[in-house]
UniProtKB/TrEMBL annotation:
InterPro entries: MJ1255-like (IPR005262). It holds the Pfam family Glyco_trans_1_3. It comes from the Bacteria. This is Glycosyltransferase.
Length: 346
């Protein structure tokens, strides 16, 4: 079997999910060509697992002070380049085309009359799940940004809908947690402003992963360059994460029993909805703006939730190999029945 797999590269969550899928696809002996779009070519890192990959510009979103700017996104988009990339991508000879909310792959498949499978969190919004912050532009983006014929949605809970658990890598949990260690990943915020909000908490140590390395006035707040390996090493023994409300990192934190403080991007329906879901499920705390009081409350609340998810990537690969039969209620329920939830007090 030969697959073409397009991945949205604007944030690291889609790439993280693709790494897990790649591992299971290659293990099953499936040949896969990966394509990534949405960020500058020199901003990709730790990509060895993909055994070579294609890069295109695609489409991306622009951000300003922690908020999606649709006007700036439109002004900085390159529609002629995008149309050219769609026309130049030849998908003949592939047994299946997959898109993780990646527009060049999705539209190329559509224009060539090839059925495309969508795997990702965005496709869960085709069902009745927690949804907030919606507006006409957000609805259009979700519908037309990367259209697929079959969409397999992923979420932290099923909400009574035919969605699957997150695609994440199962890690061995650390037996020794540093209760003072906090990872901070707020890539769309001003790093200096983030540091200002952390300075009051001298009894903790903050590891900020950012592309914008700036000097810190205190030794308990450290900026670190983006690194998959370094991030994962810090994640193993940390007590909590402060991050935007992206899906994949929160999924990893839940799997590892790490408490979560989420700050969703303004005007970004997916992240606002994710924050609402975290709050509704009791899986994490939310602050809609950087807030010293909210950070203080969260830091001194030691409760966390651990959700043990199955190997959804392996389930998906087996489902693809079996010809992608209809996901019946019994099939979906059988997968969710393997999920285990525990309350953790670190």
């Amino acid at each position: 079997m030969r697959l073409f797999y397009g991945v949205q590269g604007t944030g690291n969550g889609h790439i993280t999910r693709a790494r897990v899928m790649a591992k299971e696809l290659f293990k099953a002996g499936i040949e896969v060509d990966f394509q990534f779009t949405g960020r500058a070519f020199d901003k990709y890192f730790d990509m060895d697992i993909f055994n070579g990959y294609q890069l295109r510009h695609g489409l991306t979103f622009s951000f300003n002070k922690g908020q999606v700017s649709y006007i700036k996104s439109l002004l900085t988009s390159k529609p002629i380049t995008f149309i050219k990339e769609v026309k130049e991508l030849d998908l003949k000879g592939y047994d299946l085309v997959i898109s993780d909310f990646e527009p060049v792959t999705a539209w190329a498949a559509k224009s060539q009359g090839i059925r495309v499978l969508g795997i990702g969190h965005q496709y869960a919004f085709n069902h009745k799940i927690p949804r907030e912050g919606s507006d006409p532009i957000a609805d259009l983006v979700m519908k037309y940004y990367a259209p697929v014929d079959i969409g397999v949605g992923l979420h932290w809970h099923h909400f009574g809908q035919p969605v699957l658990p997150p695609v994440i890598e199962t890690k061995e949990l650390s037996k020794k947690i540093n209760k003072k260690k906090i990872i901070v990943y707020l890539p769309f915020e001003d790093t200096k402003i983030v540091i200002d909000h952390l300075i009051p908490f001298k009894n903790f140590e903050f590891h900020i992963y950012t592309a914008d390395i700036v000097p810190s006035p205190s030794d308990f707040v450290v900026c670190k360059p983006l690194s998959r390996e370094g991030f994962q090493q810090d994640l193993v023994d940390c007590a909590g994460i402060i991050s935007n409300a992206g899906f994949e990192l929160a999924s990893e934190a839940l799997q590892m029993g790490i408490k979560i403080l989420a700050k969703p991007l303004h005007a970004q329906m997916e992240q606002i909805s994710n924050a609402a879901a975290l709050h509704q499920l009791g899986y994490g705390q939310v602050m809609h703006d950087l807030d010293v009081a909210a950070i203080d409350h969260w830091l001194h609340n030691a409760n966390a939730i651990q959700v043990s998810y199955p190997n959804t990537a392996r389930n998906l690969v087996e489902w693809i190999q079996n010809g992608m039969p209809e996901m019946t209620a019994d099939y979906v329920e059988g997968i969710w029945n393997t999920v285990d939830i525990k309350h953790i007090h670190n």
